[in-house]
Amino acid sequence: MNDTFISVARILLFYILAVGFLFFSIVMLARAREYARRRGPIWKYLVGAVGVLYLVAALVFVVRPNLAIVPAVLALLGSIALGLGLGGFRRINLYEPELALLFILPAVLGIILFYYYQIGQTIIYSFHELDHTTKWTAENFVGLQNYVSVLSSKNFLTALGFTLYFTIVAVFFEFWIGLGMAMTTFWVPRPFAGPLRSVIIIPWAIAPIISAAIWRWFFNADVGFGSLLVQWGLLNQVPLFLVDPTLARHAVILADVWKMSSMIAILMIGGLSIIPQDIYDAAKVDGARGFYRFRRLTLPLLAPTIAVALLFRAMDAIRTFDLIYGLTKGGPGVTTETLSSLAYKFYFSRAQFGLGSAYGMTVLVIVLFLGFFYVSRLRKNLRFKGA
Amino acid sequence: MKDWLQRHSKGIDRGLSLLAAAVITLFCLIPLFWVFSTSLKPMGTEYLMPITLWPREPTLDAYRRVFAELGFLTPLRNSFIVSLTTAALCLVVAAPAAYAIARLQFRYKIAALTLLLLGAMIPPVVTIAPTFVLLKSIGLLKSLPAMVIPNVFYSVPLATWLLVSYFTELPWELEDAAKVDGFKPFQIFLRVIIPLSLPGMFAAGMFAFIGSYGEFMLASVVTLGVKDVQTIPVAIQNFSFAFRTQWTWISAGVVLALLPVVMIVLIFQRWVIRGLTAGSVKY
Hints:
The complex is a heterodimer of chains A (387) and B (283). Chain A has helices at residues 2-39, 41-63, 69-85, 96-126, 145-152, 154-187, 190-205, 208-218, 225-231, 245-273, 277-285, 290-318, 322-327, 339-348, 353-380; strands at 128-132, 136-141. Chain A contains 15 helices and 2 strands. The model of chain A has no long low-confidence stretch (mean pLDDT 85). Chain A has 387 residues and is mainly alpha-helical. A two-stranded antiparallel ribbon of chain A has the order 1-2. Chain A folds into 2 domains: 2-126, no CATH class; 148-380, MetI-like (MetI-like fold). In chain A, helix 1 (2-39) packs across helix 3 (69-85) and helix 12 (290-318) packs antiparallel against helix 15. Chain B has 283 residues and is an all-alpha fold. Chain B is 77% helix and 0% strand. Chain B is flat. The model of chain B is unreliable at 279-283 (pLDDT under 50).
């Protein structure tokens, strides 16, 4: 407990110092850049060189964290020296962009450390043969060998196939069910709308691993839902949801659809609520009826929401891990293994970080491919005062 | 017949809509009901045939056992500590960032926001191994901060994105008035913006709470099987495989694990919807 406290204090101190130093030196460098313009090209190149030092420090930090201290200190000292030399202290108060930097730096630093830096590490791992047991036992550079063995393994193809199948089928059903749910909340009489929305949100809020446990009991071979159907005379034979490969695949999909239709429904409720009511009123006056109204009015007006929601959900579905791990653990055999759950197994069951990282990178590639469309879709609509 | 339909069209419409609502409710709640009714069955009777939807003699025995013999209080406590700390720290980090993006003049707004959004997209399976090594090298494994620190930054992107949309909606006159009164930008943030966007802050915190309450991959890795630092998802996963036949116990644990989140969602339904929509669709 005491050790923990000390390490937390150390991390906090490191974080605050890093934010402070980074902020101070970047401000100095930025100011120096302003003044250098007036002073001539030599100063400009100097400022540029110090700027490059930051990049060097960041890159070295990914590969050899201990060595990064050299370019980092050089960059800090260089920017402070340049800033002071060129008159960075002529004004003590912060300009607005500088204040913005101070505000945004804690978040950005953390995100870079816990996302982008870690990706760099994973890429490095994926080029090594790493067996992670009690200590690092093997650390040989093997080039692309991990990728070769991943791409040529049969399990990879099965997992890739199931991941894609899972994503497409699950998102398809989630979209239609979610849309139906969302439209129903606008359809029911007023007093029912609120409670219905609450009910719809519940599956979404439940932790994935817990919903997996719920469904494992629901699909129980002896006294699960299947047995109940037999008991009611609706089926002749108890379906072995989690034992039969085909059924298991679709059982996983059903569990995901149950949980994530809610997510789509929430997004659609938001999209539907910003469609102005008078458009519908006008359509009603014109005599447009139910299905026609839906095809010609609701769907087109909802299109931007739908695009974002589908991309968002697809990216989420491709990296599904918790549900698989809690419901089937990839079984029977490897039939319900997704790329993520396979990567996790390589990391923490077989302690092969190198191979696991190569698996992880394949997930990243697919997600980023979709993410590109997602971000460009969102960015298209971003407008800020003063951007 | 046609006449009758026309005269009652409003009533039929209502009836159909309520029917749809009932189907949706059943779809969402059946698995939960299934687990809940199991948790009330006396131990061992969950395997009796024929299956009963509701136990003949409901008992809270399973809950008592889960607390007394399986020590469920520890993961419950741990989960609350982790999630509440995460939510609080996440707001401390995300609120200033969101304020800067929404309200301050600088050039790299879109770039900063894209950095956050892209970060939120990165699958956890890509970062988990190096994060594990990092936490190990600073000696934080088997402790609660090992979950809190990464979780804070896992929830920062959504919180920032959400708060940005809140802050941009506030009227600019407020800020101008505060400036006239001689407030510095930092004071404006603390004394004007924050108090006015408490609902938004609350919603953002709630998402951080729900996210870290359900986070499993990191939690399962850093606890290394130590019972004292297990959070709820890890505890449920472990004992649902350790006592794989005692489903009354597991169900009781599941119901207890669900309760806090379900309560939050039921109470703050409106904010959840508004928050999530703002976080990804609204523009």
